[in-house]
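anyone seen this seq b4? input:
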Amino acid sequence: GVTFGEALRKIGYDGKERIFAFNRFEGLDLRVVVGIDTAKVLTPIDAKIQTTAIAYFASLGCFLLVSWFAAERIVITPIARLTRSVAAVGRGEADHVKDNNVAEFAPLVRAFNEMARRLSQRNSELRTMNGRLASLARTDGLTGLANRRTFDVQFSQDWVRARGDGAPLTLVMLDVDHFKAFNDARGHLSGDEALRGVARMLSAAATGTTHLVARYGGEEFIVLMSGVDLAAGRAFAEDVRRLLIEGAIAHPASPRRRLTASFGVASAIPTLDDSPDTLVAAADAALYEAKRSGRDRVVANTDRFAGGANGTFA
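predicted toks r here
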């Protein structure tokens, strides 16, 4: 056979590109040249390359499509479900993360559920603590009654409601008689216990009603009675005074030798021209009159919002 040592591509006389290969015979001044149409050589090769490329990219496309479908079904969809379930627990719409039946995610689901359980437990503890704090903020620490702030808020709300309904609003104020002397004679611990006893008697008298009983400050208490007139307020005060007599709490520094209290009662149907403070002042004036006239008694202010020496008391 003959081995051609060189080759080149040239345009022939007919204008077609050919590949020429040539070689020289040793010992002879003779050369052999062979030419072939370039298209005949390259067209099958190009076709083969094109077919191979199409098959490759088709296979790659099928692989990517199958991979995407598998990822969607096996990974993305379960993760999306898990994410929605975790988010629902975080918003408080569910109490646990749902199992998405993917074995690989089972440890993650268990971890989230444990976290959800602890979070629910902590939220429950926080709600309980917040409830206790709210109760403490509304309650007098010594007597367990409503405190002054709670009374002020409720009084303002009831005042507006009574003004709209045209209903009466009544206050009963009471002050323990000679309380400083009680503390001096029996000590502050006994004084605290005496105040708790007065609080229990007020609560007992208000049982079954919507009256708000509050510690107003020191040894002074106040009762807010919505929809109740002056006569009913005075009757309530007399009931509490009677309970104090029956309780017979010893008071060595009192003329009566027992703990007593003085009561002031005032009532009104609020109007747009009125202020809640005027009703408090009227009840306070009645209480002052009870103190001035001998203590251990109930005095009602019968003049609407009258106070001090200008009031009419009964």
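The longest helix spans residues 38-90. The CA atoms of residues 247 and 301 lie 27 Å apart. kinda curious what u guys think
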